[in-house]
Design a protein that fits this description.
The structure holds 2 protein chains of 2 kinds.
Chain A lengths: L3 E4 L2 E4 L5 E7 L5 E7 L5 E7 L6 E2 L10 E5 L2 E6 L8 E8 L7 E3 L3 E5 L1
Parallel strand pairs in A: 2-11
Antiparallel strand pairs in A: 1-3, 3-8, 4-5, 4-9, 5-6, 7-8, 9-10, 9-11
Chain B lengths: L3 E2 L4 E5 L4 E7 L6 E7 L6 E7 L4 E3 L3 E6 L4 E6 L8 E8 L11 E2 L3 E6 L1
Chain lengths: 115, 116
């Protein structure tokens, strides 16, 4: 399985500011995903980060609020823009394997608190 | 959209007992299902997966059962240990060629607590 790291591991931010979360993988992967996990809840997919093209967003998530970069096959960033307390969540990146059941492996997450 | 849900939000067992965590799904187009374990402060950890053309798969101390007739998935943990205490999520996805390839839809989650 791939080794995935995220930076920062946690942060406390003021409303109205933006935070960029980094996701680094130790091997080249085709598929990278960003999820949000609100307190005490399950994971919700934000978007699929596509290398060399714009991210594909799920219903309820927009690029202006969650811009994503994917400059190469080992790295991606998610920015949470113009934050409000409702954005307080754990943000997780994951990587998928190709062929067969697409097992996804997750990073440790970034715990964001917006005050 | 389609969703994956769980019957029980919490489960408490004694160390050494067998645990069964259940999951109901609604998307009949799902090609595979995955169980994840999430410990406090960590990302979900892959446990085991099963293809939709199978009804049972075994791993180390874990067994996943799939009943497509009633759209039900379960995770059985044998001889549960305190280290098994975590939140368990089921997730479903589609193979290549499906419009949702690679994307996972997660269920609600079950909190498993193992008492020594």
């Amino acid at each position: 399985s791939a080794v995935i790291s995220q930076k920062p591991s946690r942060d406390i931010c003021q409303r109205g500011t933006s935070l960029t979360i980094q996701c680094q993988v130790d091997s080249q992967v085709t598929m990278m995903f960003w999820y949000r996990q609100q307190p005490g809840q399950s994971l919700t997919l934000i978007a699929t980060a596509n290398q060399g093209s714009e991210a594909t967003y799920e219903s309820g998530f927009v690029i202006d609020k969650f811009p994503i970069s994917r400059p190469n096959l080992t790295f991606s960033t998610l920015t949470v823009s113009n934050m409000s307390p409702e954005d307080s969540s754990i943000y997780l990146c994951s990587v998928g394997t190709s062929g067969g059941p697409a097992k996804q492996y997750f990073g440790p997450g970034t715990r964001l608190t917006v005050t | 959209g389609e969703s994956v849900g769980l019957h029980l939000p919490t489960l408490s067992v004694q160390e050494g007992d067998n645990s069964i965590i259940n999951c109901a799904y609604s998307n009949s187009a799902s090609d595979y299902f995955i169980w994840y374990k999430q410990e406090s402060g960590k990302g979900p950890q892959f446990i085991i997966d099963i293809r939709s053309n199978m009804d049972k798969r075994q791993g180390q101390r874990v067994t996943v059962l799939l009943n497509k007739t009633v759209k039900h998935l379960s995770l059985q943990i044998a001889a549960t240990q305190p280290g098994d205490s975590a939140v368990y999520f089921c997730a479903e996805g589609q193979n290549a060629g499906g419009t949702s390839y690679g994307k996972l839809t997660f269920g609600q989650g079950t909190i498993l607590t193992v008492h020594p």
